[in-house]
UniProtKB/TrEMBL annotation:
InterPro entries: Bact_solute-bd_prot1, TAT_signal
Protein name as catalogued: ABC transporter substrate-binding protein
Signal peptide: 1-28
Keyword field: Signal
Family under the similarity heading: Belongs to the bacterial solute-binding protein 1 family.
Amino acid sequence: MSHQMSRRRLLTAAAVAGTAAMSPLLTACGGGGGAQRGGANTKEGMRAALPTYVERTAVKPEIAPAAGGKDVATHPGYLTYPAKPPVTVQGVPGKGGSYTAVTPLWGTNPPAGNSYFQAMTKALGLDLQVKPADGNTYNTIVPTMTAAKKLPDWILLPAWWNPNFATGQLAGSQLADLTPYLAGDKVKKYPNLAALPTGAWQTGVWNDKLHGIPGHASNYEVGATFYRRDVLEAKGITADQVKSADDLMRLGKELTDAKRGVWAFDDIWTYVYTFWGAPTKWKVEDGKLSHLYETQEFLEALDWHYRLAKSGCMHPDALAGDNAAANTRFYSGKTLIKGDGKGAWVLADHQSGTAANPQYRRGAFNVFTADGKGRPRLEMGPASSMISYLNANLKPAQIEELLAVANYLAAPYGSAEYTMVQFGVEGVHHTRENGVPVYTEDGKKFAQTGTYSGLATPAAVISAPGNDQLVKDVTDWEKANVHTLVKPPFWGMNISLPQAMATAEAAQPVADTIKDCSHGKKTVSEVRTVVDSWKSGQGKRLKEWMTSNILEKYGTGL
């Protein structure tokens, strides 16, 4: 029922990708030729390419955002939806052009020419043929297009698949340079785009040129360790009682009742290992670069999760690697604690949970340190993982026409344009119930799929019309933890890795062994053996390359 719902549909795949969405944006480039050797954005080049930020709020939120550090802030919270959505775009943005667009879709593809598409064509003033492709195979579909140099006019390239797409290389050839249109104050021609966070625009900068339009922008992109708040509070347990890894383990033993088919934990490895002080990927101390796998904190975290897997407190299906049914287990109360991206904490989740149990309420543990001492820290993911790009073959007038459309699609929450994009035409695709837009049957089939959300969106907000408690729960958690958020090294730098280095960074044998260990199938000693082999070969070469080509030339980006 909100921007958050569309965001959840698109970010499901990011959560499945695990740490990929939390790591520096990496892209593999083929052999030979200048830019293909790999590199990153310079501070000066980045600064020159980025659009000027100009705040714009169409509707004042009931819960104001709270600032953390630079590029860190909680989301605004909305408890109501405006009865008369304000207009932010005067006139029709398009000039009658005809264009094609491709976005991934994890769901049922709406039929072409449906009433929602027709209404959007009229509202946008052009013929934009959006062709959703299967999100489950999107990472193989796009390379076929790029190999044939047959990209559509507008395409969404999720950042966690940058290695598959070789996005950095495409930015120098098949993707349009938007710097002349959006850099600095030029973006003020498109005020809704100017209101997107600066950190989100960084994800679309390659080789010191702005190429991408960020979607679902957020200054609070993190994962969390969730729990069934309704179940725990019924037992007299509150989140503030968990202040260390030992507390969490003890809680797991208290909650598990295998005879009744209840296990405390689903898989939480991806979302807790940094509590030991391990970096998400890289750390820099005294000017020296270290990889996650080189750190003692990583091994200590893995040892804890191995013991968790062996404790009998983790659901057998989670141990078997069945992630697809994790939400079903959580909703039904078969598991009570699970890790996920924060995009899971939305109205759609509440609706699914209460369908299984009317008392369902999701909560999240505050960030803590493994030993319960010191200041906890949580490394941020990129401010946008859904970036759209325009085709380099477009003429300047066509680029300007599509940027005007992007400005319409990025209209802020509660505006007339936002209402049109998200809910369609009132009386056709949605009606109002207690002042809240509610999809009709046609709206569910045509508008709710979020087709246009893959091209441009406003910055993320917290909204769950009709469920004030959910909005308060999420915003309260964000404010309680905003002080823990930090940027990891190379945040938003869009590093381009040569193919050999991308393979080394993926470290698939290591990743596979870690997964087995976190599920209790292999020991930490076995992980250490595989890691030592990686460190002496591919890992050593990767660190040397990152040190000489990125750290020494460009710094950490912080």
